[in-house]
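Researcher: Structure for this, please.
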Amino acid sequence: MTVNEEQTTISVALEDLTREVEALHAGGYRLVQIGCTGTGETYEINYSFDKDYQYRNLRLTVEPETEIPSISGIYWGAFVYENEMHDLFGIPVTGINIDFKGTFIRTAEKYPFSVTRSGGDRCRNA
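Model: Predicted structure, token format:
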């Protein structure tokens, strides 16, 4: 079987995130992953979706302390990724269907991958 895998990445504004995710859900896309990384003084959050080997990625760039709306009301299992973003990066996610309130991932240091953490370059560039 030959698969022609197409990937598209679209930058999305925070206020459009939920609407864009709802449109992908309505179009039959499945949530593949939500990934987060520090990029200097901001965070880049990538929401990846798939339908018939056609990937669609929504890219959100936010400042520290920016509240992100949960998509767990649309994709129930997103709560895992959203709790991870909170516990590892310190990103506040509002409205998570199962919110562990900072206890999902236990670390020796609070928010070890935060862009505002002293020595954070070591973690971001590892």
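Researcher: Any notable elements?
Model: Confidence is low (pLDDT under 50) at residues 119-126. The longest strand covers residues 30-39.
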